[in-house]
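Progress report, Aim 2. The chain analyzed during this reporting quarter is listed below.
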Amino acid sequence: MAGNEGENGMPPSPVYERLLPVQEDALKEVFHIGAGQAATSMAEALGLKVMVSVPTIGIQPLEEVLSSLAKPATPVVCLVNIFAGDISGCTIWLMPGDKARDFAQLCWHHMPRAKRSPEFDFGGIHREISDCMTAAYLNTVESMLGLLTVPSVPMLMSGVFRTVLERILRERSQGTGAVAFIQNKFIIGERPNSFSGFFMMVPDFDSLKRMLEVLKVAEY
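Predicted structure tokens for the chain:
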């Protein structure tokens, strides 16, 4: 990892080229637990089987991230949750648009709010999913690293996959042209009638450094 010099007396903006294997492994251990807790919380809330992938963790130029994660023409529903505190950044819950409504309908019949009101709330369902996953990841960061955060109310976005993701990630790149991310794929329900969604945590670069420092792998 390397930093660049600031201009006009301003503090330098960190630019990270890559994570070393020992750093990836340390972060993967934390967020594997976070993803597992998110899957467990989802399974308990919905009464459905929830499977989750091993987290993909890295630092990549924005264009590489978009090319590897985004199918340009696919419509998506996206929830963005900004968090701040000892570390800052955002979480992103993404699901293909053609599946998002059917998934929400399935969830509606299993969530507590369905017992309180018969009115279907598409955005509210996905906000609850985003809140559940965000809480699991941030609670893991708090319990394992001692870093406290406060999440915002999730913001609902929709549109073409690449356009939506680029708008979010460009804001988080801090002018460096690169982003740090942790990404998991969740499969909810039993195949062949299962639903797939993606959850990403995008920490700011200073926050990434803070996590690596706590994990004692910042200087490798």
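The first helix runs from residue 21 to 46. The longest strand covers residues 75-85. These observations will guide the mutagenesis work planned for the next reporting period.
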